[in-house]
Amino acid sequence: MLLAGDIGGTKSRLAIFADRSDPRRPLAEEILTSADYPGIEALIRAFLDRTTLTADRACLAIAGPVLHNWASVTNLPWVAEAETLCRAFGFRSVRLLNDIAATARAVPLLQPREIHTLCSGEPDEQGTVAVIAPGTGLGEAFLICRGTERLEHASEGGHADFAPVNALESELLDELRKALDHVSYERLCSGPGIGRLYRFLKEQAPEKEPSWLAQRLAGTDDPAPVIVDAALQDQSALCIRTVDLFCSILGAEAGNLALKVLSTGGVFIGGGIAPKILPFLEQGAFLAAFRQKGRMGGLLLRMPVYVILSERAALIGAASE
Predict the structure, then answer these.
(1) Does pLDDT of 19 surpass 80?
(2) What HEC string does the chain produce?
(3) CATH match for 121-303 among 3.40.367.20, 3.40.50.2000, 1.10.760.10, 3.90.550.60
(4) Does the 2-99 domain belong in CATH 3.30.420.40?
């Protein structure tokens, strides 16, 4: 029996599978709010206490860097160590891997209904696959082919320096530098990033914020869902501009990743945000920024681009261990 998990900064998904069974068919599965628990051990224990099943090994996808089977969750004060988890739960083995590396591992296992095509391109079946995933943070990973074997590789590329590509983004960078000691792509291409983009654009034109929207935003700790919902319903030009800017910056960084790993096998956009803003990703700002790479624009034009619709991709990747 295998305990598989997708441990995120906002929520965590845990499941138990019969060994070597279909990674889509768990015997038990639960979504837990991560902040309700002091650490990963408490999270796992709460899940196991609510099921009559046990597991003798585990594979956990962690939203943060994983080094030598030790991991820290970037957006929570949590750490995980394989040996400690083995002792705590009697597992004979524990494997820790980065959550976006787990998502990359799941790409070949995804079904057509779990993928939306933004650009069909010219896919190379033996080519490298890139995954970029905006959510609580911004994850990046890639998958390479070696004969019939596919090997996932983690990355912390989302924390690389944000590089503006036009005057508006240069002004954005200047403003963010006043409040942040380091402006990375994750600071913008994430749930909290949507709030930062909105505040920046509102400061430029405060009269554009309607009173109903100001009241709704004042009543929430997480402005991103409110902003996205207003944009999707065409209720606020300011929210529409925010999501457009988000898509453009995400597209530019997706193009950067595609060039760095030469992802002729395709670029997959994962995470929880992309499926929710699919109409905006289809409107062109994302792909225009993705391909705006000078002499490499033609190369990127041929690369397929997809959105992962399944929320369970990282869990599927962990369960395929």
Answers:
(1) no
(2) CEEEEEECCCEEEEEEECCCCCCCCCCEEEEEEHHHCCCHHHHHHHHHHCCCCCCCEEEEEECCCEECCEEECCCCCCEEEHHHHHHHHCCCEEEEEEHHHHHHHHHHHCCHHHEEEEECCCCCCCCCEEEEEECCCEEEEEEEEECCEEEEEEECHHHCECCCCCHHHHHHHHHHHCCCCCCECCCCCCHHHHHHHHHHHHHHCHHHCCHHHHHHHHCCCCHHHHHHHHHHCCCCHHHHHHHHHHHHHHHHHHHHHHHHHCCCCEEEECCCCHHHHHHHHCCCHHHHHHHCCHHHHHHHHCCCEEEECCCCHHHHHHHCC
(3) 3.40.367.20
(4) yes
